[in-house]
Amino acid sequence: MDGDGGGAAAGAAAVHHHTRSPEDVFRDFRARRAGILKALTTDVEKFYQQCDPEKENLCLYGLPNETWEVTLPAEEVPPELPEPALGINFARDGMIEKDWLSLVAVHSDAWLLSVAFYFGARFGFDKDARRRLFTMINNLPTVYEVVTGVVKKQSKAPNGSSKSSKSNSKPSKQTNSNSKPAKPAHPKEEEDSGREDAEEEDQAYLCGSCGESYANGEFWICCDVCEKWFHGKCVRITPAKAEHIKQYKCPSCSSKRSRE
Q1: Interval 131-190: pLDDT, tens
Q2: Within 67-123, where are the H helices?
Q3: Per-residue b/e over 197-216, b at no fewer than 16 CB within 10 Å?
Q4: Least CB-packed of 58, 138, 168, 199 within 10 Å?
Q5: Positive or negative CA dihedral for 150, 155, 159, 161?
Q6: CA-CA distance, 128 to 150, in Å (whole number)?
Q7: Cα(185)–Cα(197) distance, integer angstroms
Q8: Whole-structure pTM over 0.85, yes or no?
Q9: Which residues form the PHD-type domain (predicted)?
Q10: CA–CA separation, 242 vs 126, rounded Å?
Q11: How many CB atoms are closer than 10 A to CB 12?
């Protein structure tokens, strides 16, 4: 996916012409975020290989079509859009891989916010519009939270089962495609925290690949190594295929093992 630089600007012209509301800017934010999440999770092996320390300064761009690109920074000064962190490839071999990915994730979060609020400034968003945009963005877990599994810290396995428990016919790592995962109950004394608890619970059911929440009827599968949950479609696993998997490893964990 290497190119001649300025990957993020590729979709900027269309955004400039059509985006005027916070909701439109948020859609652009969400699409770029989805692309970056793919690079750092399901496509992590390809991303790792492309960040060659022998190459020049490289940047990770999330694109408006939910894809990603590792390429040189924009040549124009100033660039059409804010630029991502420069030279992520130089740090790759000097760090533990998970720490390097976490670092890229943090910088990616900062870049995504800067692009969104660049559009907000360009389109003259007022105080209420900026608040609306930030609220929508803030309701999604950050790239860092998804990549590091922070959103899973207090989670329970869907269906309310633990990792070690087994159902009669299927391993607990597979959710019932016809039911929504049961959410863990909180003690009565915590009821006053209301919204905060609800947000924490919602974060417990976020796909480790796309970061989106569980929807009724969707098939999910859990990685037996990192214990993150994934939409079956995000990791290309069908319910029928899952029936024959004794121990499932997500793309990220599989690629780590292959490099050890």
Answers
A1: 999 999 999 999 999 999 886 654 444 544 333 333 333 334 444 443 344 444 444 444
A2: 97-122
A3: eeebbebbbbbbbbbbebee
A4: 168
A5: positive
A6: 30
A7: 10
A8: no
A9: 204-256
A10: 49
A11: 19
Please write the tens of the pLDDT for every residue from 213-243: 777 677 888 888 888 888 888 888 888 888 8
Residue 148, amino acid: T
Look-up: residue for tokens 């396995």?
Answer: 157
Domain residue ranges of the chain, discontinuous segments joined by + = 22-148, 202-255
**pLDDT tens per residue across span 66-111:** 999 999 998 888 889 999 999 999 999 999 999 999 999 999 999 9
The Cα 181–Cα 229 span in angstroms is 11
- Locate 138 and state its tokens: 């803030």
**For 181-222, what is each residue's pLDDT tens digit?**
444 444 444 444 555 555 554 555 678 888 887 776 778 888
Residues present in the chain in total: 260
Pairing of strands 220-222, 59-62: unpaired
- Residue 224: closest CA among 211, 237, 240, 213: 237
Look up residue 192 and give its two tokens. Answer: 């006053």
The alpha carbon torsion through 244, 250, 251, 256 (nearest 10 deg) reads -120
